[in-house]
Write a structure and sequence with these properties.
Layout lengths: L1 E7 L4 H13 L2 E8 L5 H9 L3 E3 L8 H14 L4 E4 L8 H6 L4 E5 L11 H8 L3 E8 L9 E8 L6 H24 L5 H8 L10
Parallel strand pairs: 1-2, 1-4, 2-3, 4-5
Antiparallel strand pairs: 5-6, 6-7
Bound molecules: 5-O-phosphono-beta-D-ribofuranosylamine (GRF).
């Protein structure tokens, strides 16, 4: 069974959805939650759910690379196959990216490449879009860049606040993130992502 780890900085609702999904499906095991925020709510969820967890602040390390070596070594000690970012508010550096090459996924609360960064929901509302959404992608060194695996639109309604839109987006995230993670580690990724990841044309007839 695949071993997954989740990295989170905040509430951890996607982490919890993922734990419930994989406990039911039994196709993967969430073996670890790591956080850069020792007070984050995701750690309480991990305790309640019985998932091993650890947290360290970046500022308690001499530099970001030492912090990432801690993450990498902790993941390797638990024999983690794939890493899932769920509200992890940091860019991944070369140490993590090299150790888990194309095996780190992220979820973003907007239709990328629109509204990357930390304030996607507010920015989409301020811009006045009528449709926003959810993007799940493979992580590279950029901010919310990397090959897209899945997108789903979410309508924006008149009178929406950041809270109401975030809630609508979250329900899509909780439903889809575990399924896309599962499809990815089972090798069922989209053609577009395969092309972008492996930089080669598919060998099968894709019909267009
Ligand atoms: C989600 O909206 C996700 O798209 C973004 O951060 C939020 C995390 O929420 N990257 P939670 O901590 O999983 O509740």
């Amino acid at each position: 069974m695949s071993k997954l780890a989740v990295l989170a900085s905040g509430s951890g609702s996607n982490f919890e959805a993922m734990v419930h999904y994989f406990r039911q499906q039994a196709t993967a095991d969430i073996v670890l939650l790591l956080s850069d925020q020792p007070q984050a709510q995701c750690l309480n969820r991990a305790e309640r759910l019985g998932v091993p967890a650890a947290a360290q602040r970046v500022r308690d390390f001499p530099d970001k690379d030492s912090y990432e070596r801690w993450i990498r070594d902790t993941l390797l000690d638990s024999a983690v196959d794939m890493v899932v970012l769920a509200g992890y508010m940091r860019l991944c550096g070369p140490t993590l990216l090299q150790a888990f090459d194309h095996r780190i996924l992220n979820i973003h609360p907007a239709l990328l490449p629109s509204f990357p960064g930390k304030h996607a929901v507010e920015q989409a509302l301020d811009y006045g879009v009528q449709v926003s959404g959810v993007t799940i992608h493979v992580v590279d060194e950029g901010m919310d860049t990397g090959p897209i695996l899945y997108q789903e639109p979410v309508p924006v309604f008149a009178g929406d606040t950041p809270e109401t839109l975030q809630k609508r987006i979250a329900s899509v995230e909780h439903r889809m993130y575990p399924r896309v993670v599962e499809a990815y580690f089972q090798g069922e990724v989209t053609l577009k992502a395969r092309r972008a990841i492996w930089k080669e044309e598919p060998t099968w007839d894709c019909g267009f």
